[in-house]
Amino acid sequence: MRAQFVLSEIGVGLRRNLTMTFAVIVSVGLSLALFGGSLLMSDQVSQMKGYWYDKVNVSIYLCNKSDAESDPACARGAVTTEQKEQIKADLEKMPVVDTVAYESQDQAYKHYKEQFGDSPLASSLTPDQMQESYRVKLKDPEKYQVITSAFNGRAGVQSVQDQKGTLDNLFTLLGYLNWAARGVMFVMLAVALMLIVNTVRVSAFSRRRETGIMRLVGASGFYIQAPFIMEAAVAGLIGGTIACASLVLGQQFVIEGGVTLSEKLPLINFVGWDAVLTKLPLILAASFLMPALAASFALRKYLKV
User: What Pfam family is a match for this entry (predicted)?
Assistant: First the structure.
């Protein structure tokens, strides 16, 4: 097969159906940009889980005088010095516990003022209204129930709270958003495939006399199909290149520069360039193979000339 003939036919086909070719490029670019974005979103959620689950604490809040008067869990009175020492000793004996940090009422009041100093409630609070607590870091965050079952309801303990529950809700929401992005991606892929099929069929129909002559003179099916398949593949590859450029520009100007989310949201450990660059070959391969396979499927009926 002469490469010059195939290349000339590709150029003719792309120019002849310029509007539909442009629609294919845009739809493939958008759908694959969403595809790459959803893959990066999955990596982001996994990275955030590993980062934050390693830092979560189980907080054991101790009863104060105010709790003893109003909270049924503290009906036996405010925590005593002996109870605090016993709780700490029991925590340090547990194999699931990594470290134990004590927070006094003054420290809790200071931290509250730092975080919520502008709220109206902050001006009315006093240190003696705050709760003492133990902040427990676990070797395995999944085993927080061991701490809960051992200390919930114990004398001097007002409540046991696990930060992992709050993070789980956040990651569940992020997971739903990721699946929503994937749903839009699948819709866009379906639109792109339909556009590719229609574009190839229109192109084949407009050149049906040429393909008929080629078939009559003994040209093989692959020889006839090749220009049409390559047209679709080239259009898809252009769209894939646009999708790759979108991910690269997003990482460069939104995450690391320009908007600089990594600086404005320092609590989020964003994925780096290694995650982005590993997705680009997959996107380019999909942008080439998907249109080529769709074109091959659409052309089967046109070989029966």
Answer: FtsX_ECD
pTM: 0.60
C-alpha–C-alpha distance, residues 244 and 281, integer Å: 9
Q: Sign (positive/negative) of CA torsion 62, 145, 48, 241? A: negative
Residue 165 burial by CB count (10 A; 0-12/13-18/19+): exposed, middle or buried? exposed
Residue 72: CB partners within 8 Å, gap ≥ 6? Answer: none
Q: Which residues pair with 135 in a beta bridge?
A: 59, 101
Tell me how far CA of residue 248 lies from CA of 68, 85, 261, 305, in angstroms.
Answer: 58, 55, 15, 46
What is the tens place of the pLDDT at every residue in 267-290?
Answer: 566 777 888 888 899 889 988 888
> Residue 234 in contact with residue 10, Cβ under 8 Å?
yes
Residues 6+ away with beta carbon under 8 Å from 101:
134, 135, 136, 137
